[in-house]
Amino acid sequence: MTFQPIIIVGFMGSGKTTVALELASHLSCGAIDLDEWIKQREKRSPKEIIEQDGEEVFRRMETRVLGEVLDEGVARVIAVGGGAWTIAANRKLMTDHAAFVAWLDAGFELCWERIEASGETRPLARSREIAQKLYDERRPIYELADARIEINENESAEETAKKVAAVLAPLRLTGKSPSNIEW
Ligand code: S3P
Asked: Which residue, among 149, 145, 115, has the nearest Cα to 130 in the 3D structure?
């Protein structure tokens, strides 16, 4: 391992991808979105994979790709899909790579508002009831993350990223990021 990664987790609609990009820009390091990485590799989006092959197949791919991205040190900041942190094998991979895991804790109403506004049907959140049940089931697992970052709907992704950076600052994570800038 060349450096300690920072992983952004949280429910669908919590803003993981945009916050990860803002954080990377703030820290002058690289960021990737694991779902986007999967899409590039598989030539299908996670939504398509889940709809066509089922969630189990997607989870296996997700774990494999997460392992590769961590082993190869592709980027310092990694946003993962909403379910990734709920899978024990993924949490182990992150621990094995000494990752720092930040949970974007957005309330259900805000997540659901954003899911609806995106206009994209989510295979695992097809209705408000299903999404709420998943949210409630996952919450105790998200609580296992290294840091909880409360999401306020009036706050910009840049402000949230600064809150993550403030939590990280005293930790002195080790190693150089791919852009070769240590912080
Ligand atoms: C999932 C969330 C999605 C994507 C997949 C499964 C989940 O990512 O990984 O559809 O289980 O919550 P986002 O959280 O980025 O929407």
From this structure: 115
